[in-house]
Design the sequence.
């Protein structure tokens, strides 16, 4: 959070402009609505011009004037904007995934474009406003509608994020709780000013002096109603790791003041539940809260993605892999590849292959973690590690079935034996195949980082697997590799 946390913890940040927060939020939604509308209109016009200029389809012999399509443009933009509304795409989230937004936009724009085509046929047929809407034009309009809508929404988000960082459209936030959960949430909000929160303080079960990460303890649970009124609190986060049902209900009742939004950190049952399924045991229904093993069609689908990705990757990247092998040989003596025994599915060992990124004698003094600015790493190796290029030969491991494209990162047997004694449920991560990349890696939990946090991230992946999650992880990995922005890649 920008500024001194302590100074923010006992006073409400003054508004930068006279408009109320409610008015600013309404203005944010309105400007997004206008942005979408303008982009959809522009997309139709660009698609109309592209039909003549781009050679994806045969050029039309005679294309009607753009003016003839004005009613169709209006139907197209209105239909998709209405579908955006009913798909809750105008319910603005403080934190969101660009990949998730792209998926939502593609889905809604696809359905909206098809629906608009049928609607304009129904409404405009046999009228003076009727115009021919060929399928080739429909494709161009759909494509540019997706592209320009995503671009417009990104520009809109950046604009309002900038305003939040400058103190506009910020909500006064009260954190209820103490301990590791409350500390974790407080730290995340402090380091993420783009979320638009100003922490006014923290309340706990008993009188508490001092502060948490620079934010003062300002009262107890019984004082929550008064604090909400005095500090003009608009958001409350209940951040308790262990609580009784009655205690939680009482806290929520205390927080229900005016238009205050209340968010509750999920308890352990909610965390474990994820996707709930109802099984039948001889007529007795059972609620499945933990069924983490991939099997059946899910396992086949994941394996199909692995085979496709590994095959395409090896074919397309083989010239670059050959060039890399030549550079490694020219820079230092030794083997081109580095083989190492790792533990994968069900704790079975397998030989993992990488491009050699260290000196040949790197392990002459024993095997240790790679740390930042490690002297054993070669110049070429440093470049490869920063872009994850040294991992590319593992596509061979994927192809033969040792690994998956996405999964928990495999460790050496010596470390696995050590970690399973120190960390509860560590071996859960071995219920699925190890991966070239994973949820832990894209979130910076690699290299010389906390094993407990890595294990937690791996458990999240194993217990919440979906094909879409794999695709998201692959896309984020490619982006981080291309931009050389992979956290803790050294």
Sequence:
């Amino acid at each position: 959070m920008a500024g001194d946390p302590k100074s923010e913890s006992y006073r409400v940040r003054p508004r930068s402009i006279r408009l109320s927060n409610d008015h600013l939020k309404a203005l944010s939604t309105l400007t997004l609505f206008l942005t979408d509308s303008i982009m959809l209109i522009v997309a139709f016009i660009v698609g109309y011009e592209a039909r003549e200029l781009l050679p994806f389809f045969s050029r039309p012999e005679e294309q009607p004037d753009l003016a003839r399509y004005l009613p169709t443009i209006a139907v197209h933009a209105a239909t998709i904007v209405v579908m955006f509304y009913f798909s809750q795409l105008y319910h603005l989230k403080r934190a969101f995934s660009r990949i998730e937004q792209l998926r939502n936009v593609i889905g809604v724009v696809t359905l909206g474009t098809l629906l608009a085509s049928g609607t304009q046929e129904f409404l405009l047929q046999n009228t003076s406003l009727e115009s021919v809407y060929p399928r080739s034009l429909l494709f161009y309009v759909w494509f540019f509608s997706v592209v320009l809508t995503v671009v417009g929404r990104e520009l809109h988000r950046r604009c309002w994020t900038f305003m939040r960082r400058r103190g506009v459209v910020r909500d006064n936030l009260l954190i209820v709780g103490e301990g590791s959960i409350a500390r974790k949430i407080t730290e995340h909000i402090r380091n993420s000013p783009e979320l638009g929160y100003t922490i006014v303080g923290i309340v706990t079960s008993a009188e508490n002096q001092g502060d948490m990460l620079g934010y003062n303890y300002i009262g107890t649970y019984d004082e929550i109603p008064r604090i909400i009124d005095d500090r003009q609190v608009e958001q409350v986060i209940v951040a308790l790791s262990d609580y009784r049902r009655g205690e939680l209900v009482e806290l929520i009742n205390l927080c229900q003041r005016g238009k205050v939004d209340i968010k509750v950190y999920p308890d352990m049952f909610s965390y474990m539940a994820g996707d709930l399924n109802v099984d039948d045991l001889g007529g007795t229904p059972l609620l499945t809260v933990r069924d983490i093993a991939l099997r059946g069609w899910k396992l086949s689908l994941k394996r199909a993605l692995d085979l496709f990705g590994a095959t395409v990757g090896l074919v397309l990247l083989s010239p670059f892999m050959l060039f890399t092998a030549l550079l490694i040989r020219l820079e230092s003596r030794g083997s081109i590849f580095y083989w190492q025994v790792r533990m994968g599915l069900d704790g079975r060992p397998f030989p993992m292959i990488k491009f050699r990124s260290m000196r040949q004698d790197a392990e002459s003094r024993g095997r240790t973690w790679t740390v930042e600015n490690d002297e054993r790493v070669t110049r070429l190796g440093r470049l490869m590690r920063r872009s994850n290029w040294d991992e590319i030969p593992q596509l061979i491991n994927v192809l033969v079935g040792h690994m998956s494209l996405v999964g928990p990162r495999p460790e050496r047997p010596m470390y696995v034996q050590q970690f399973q004694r120190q960390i509860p449920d560590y071996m859960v991560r071995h219920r699925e195949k190890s991966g070239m990349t994973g949820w832990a890696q894209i979130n910076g939990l690699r290299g010389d980082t906390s094993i407990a946090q890595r294990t937690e991230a791996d458990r999240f992946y194993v217990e919440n697997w979906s094909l879409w999650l794999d695709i998201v992880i692959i896309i984020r990995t490619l982006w981080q590799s291309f931009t050389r922005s992979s956290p803790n890649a050294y």
In short: The CA atoms of residues 162 and 194 lie 7 Å apart. Confidence is low (pLDDT under 50) at residues 7-17, 268-276, 288-292. The chain has three domains: 5-13+168-265, 21-165, 296-482. Residues 296-482 form one domain.
